[in-house]
Amino acid sequence: MTHIDNADLARMVDHTLLKPEATRQDVEALAREAEQLGTYSICVSPSMLPVSTSVAVATVCGFPSGQHASAIKAAEAADSVAKGAAEVDMVINIGLARAGDVDGVEADIRAVRDAAPAPTVLKVIIESAALDDEQIVAVCEAAERAGADFVKTSTGFHPAGGATEHAVALMRRTVGDRLGVKASGGIRTREAAEAMVAAGASRLGLSGTRAVLEG
């Protein structure tokens, strides 16, 4: 596996803090650490916006269950963009995906895309560990049709687990070089991070970024 230098790896990272108990002070510390480490962005809960930082600011939408009405997800995304979020990571309706309602999944994503149009970057969290391969392919195709910029493996909150090399590789094969692929959930070591990149990830969601970068 190709070793990636620290600066290049850091530039692929959304330095993430989505714990429900996080405080505004915790988020401010996260932003300072992201600046020191040279990460691409921070990813924080919508209620923490706006955040003053020199790195990009990402947030989540319909998090973590995805079982929100599309209109609510759309309103949440629009509010976050108005408060300075450059990127929105939305959770699909996983129940619809498992039931085979791909049109419903696509409509849900499209509602958020319409509420947060380009240049806002829209990442679609598919909760890959809760889906089979056929479902993963179907929802990635739906995300692309709906105008998403990235597909993303996981919230990191689902009991089924987080990112796997298999899911990342399947997602990359499905979207080709047309969309980004973000691996997140349970990536805690340098080796795991590099494995996700080798599998096709172009962005990484990490909460323990310093530990990963320091190996």
Structural class: alpha/beta
Q: Under CATH, the topology is which?
A: TIM Barrel
Give the strand order, joined by hyphens, for the main sheet.
1-2-3-4-5-6-7-8
| Biggest sheet architecture | 8 strands, parallel, barrel
- SSE ordering: HEHEEHEHHEHEHEHEH
Described by the principal axes of the CA atoms, the overall outline is globular
CATH superfamily: Aldolase class I
Q: Percent of residues in beta strands?
A: 15-25%
| Rg | 16 Å
Give the averaged pLDDT, no decimals: 97
Count of alpha and pi helical runs: 9
**Tally of separate domains:** 1
Query: What's the CATH architecture name?
Result: Alpha-Beta Barrel
Reading off the top of the CATH hierarchy, the class is best stated as Alpha Beta
Which parts are unreliable, with pLDDT below 50 for 5 consecutive residues or more?
Answer: none
Number of strands: 8
Pfam families: DeoC (PF01791)
EC number: 4.1.2.4
Main location: cytoplasm
Subcellular location: Cytoplasm
Concise structural overview:
This protein is about 40% helix and about 15% strand. By secondary structure, it is of the alpha/beta class. It has a single domain, classed as TIM Barrel, CATH 3.20.20.
